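Obj.: predict assembly geometry.
Materials: sequence records (below).
Method: joint structure prediction, all chains together.
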Amino acid sequence: MRSWSILLLFTGFLSFAQINKGEAGADLKPTRIYNSEGVKIASFDFNSFEPILHKNDDAIYVINFWATWCLPCVKELPYFEQINKKYKNQNVKVILVSMDMPKKVESALIPFVKKKKLESEIIHLDDPDANAWIEKVDKNWSGAIPATIIYNNKTRKFYERSFTFEELEKELSTIINK
Amino acid sequence: MKTVKIAALVLLVSIVSAFTLVKSDLGGYQIGDVATDFSLQNVDTKKVSLSDFKDAKGFIVVFTCNHCPYAKAYEERIMALDKKYKKLGYPVVAINPNNPAVQPDDSFEMMQKRAKEKGYTFPYLFDEGQKIYPQYGATKTPHVYILEKTKAGNVVRYIGAIDDNYSDEAAVKTKYVENAVDALLKNQDVPVKTTKAIGCSIKA
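Observations (raw structure tokens):
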């Protein structure tokens, strides 16, 4: 009986601590986890999020800053999804960092993720003192979204702009083929 | 001798224009630059220029709009800034830089509606043809430029965010714009001259 409850406690702890196995945010400590309509999204402040920008493994990370209310962001989102599908087997990890306001996560972000059937990893970033961290993402970022970082352990590129699929693939290829 | 003079003049002009090009490549004003005046249509259909404000000591120019959630979050605070600082010589001048063909919520008619509903006490101008915001170098809404009126023109003294917490006014620790205007009113150096914030990219 006792071992059962310990086991239960243990698995309970695991499911709380893990976001999703294999995702970039899996080993990080979110400030909050939203869980509704069967969609789980981890929310971070900048300090707990920052390691995602500096992973030192063999993967290529494509990190897109967006929000459901941002028209140009929503427009280019399918291209990031396409990249995620097409390059998954080449160790490319697409991470969509939502800047939606906290009160909109359950009312807008999660329904959006569900409706669009997004498959890339989704992370929520909530840290209102943006002046303290925007330059830590990239010194050239004005703070406008959409914005994208593509990096691996050798190269890092930052873009404050929108992409077509072809443009995004071209930028990715400059890092893949290096 | 004359040709030398002409050659020197040509050289000077090309150097100056080269610098101007470099400047626009950097994307707009830096602190200390003289900001351009403009003549833009206000929501009451009258044209407004900075030179119309004879008694102003300077301006709180805010690139903002209707649709952006960050602009909406700051709307009341922008109204409060005008209420507090217009009588002290620093009125708010709001400019919507977005192209309504790309963002229909930011059309001139929608601007008029918004200004009326909320009772804006400041001009809310339409950057028709999206010509003024690139000169300032605004990239998003809201994006603030504080100008000080001097003999040389309207000098840029602060560029950036209104304060350090868009989502919760009660949790604001530093009011960047108020601190900057307060310093200018006391003839002091602006303590924090540039800040960054997340915002909606301008839809051109």
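Conclusions so far: Chain B touches chain A through 26 residues (CB under 8 Å).
To do: check interface contacts against the pulldown list.
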